[in-house]
């Protein structure tokens, strides 16, 4: 599984003129590692929420399949998202995740509709 982050793999801002940069990241835990993965993922929540470009950052665990986690993330813009990826705690997380993931994560990029608020 790859944790390499390359800016060009992330879409540019919305072509519709919407403000903000949002995404959902889906992660699948290795069976038996669900709680350990949750602890690891939670370790970046508060520092991320404190980033100046972070509008909203929430970790969620699937009710039906507790081995699946979803981050819902909203940033002021693409540059704020790229700054988030460059933080030491996210760089460390991307390396530390490897033994906990059953497959590559999935990322869906969204364009916020309407005004953003936290």
CATH fold title: Alpha-Beta Plaits
Uncertain spans, ≥5 residues at pLDDT below 50? 1-8
Q: What's the helical proportion of residues? A: 25-40%
How many beta-strand elements? 4
Element order: H for helix, E for strand: EHHEEHHE
Q: Main beta sheet: strand number and arrangement? A: 4 strands, antiparallel
Overall average pLDDT: 86
Round the Cα radius of gyration to an integer and report it. Answer: 14 Å
User: What is the name of the CATH class?
Assistant: Alpha Beta
Strand order of the largest sheet: 2-3-1-4
Count of individual helical segments: 4
Distance between the termini: 33 Å
Overall tally of domains: 1
CATH-scheme architecture? 2-Layer Sandwich
Provide the β-strand percentage band.
Answer: 15-25%
Dominant shape: globular
Structural class: alpha+beta
């Amino acid at each position: 599984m790859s944790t390499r982050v390359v800016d060009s793999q992330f879409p540019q801002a919305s072509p519709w003129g919407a403000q903000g940069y949002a995404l959902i990241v889906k992660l699948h835990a290795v069976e038996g590692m669900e709680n350990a993965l949750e602890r690891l993922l939670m370790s970046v929540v508060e520092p991320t929420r404190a980033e100046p470009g972070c509008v909203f950052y929430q970790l969620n665990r699937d009710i039906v399949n507790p081995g699946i986690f979803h981050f819902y993330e909203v940033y002021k813009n693409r540059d704020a998202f790229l700054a988030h990826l460059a933080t030491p705690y996210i760089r460390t997380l991307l390396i530390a995740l490897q033994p906990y993931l059953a497959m590559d994560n999935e990322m869906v990029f969204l364009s916020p509709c309407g005004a953003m608020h936290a």
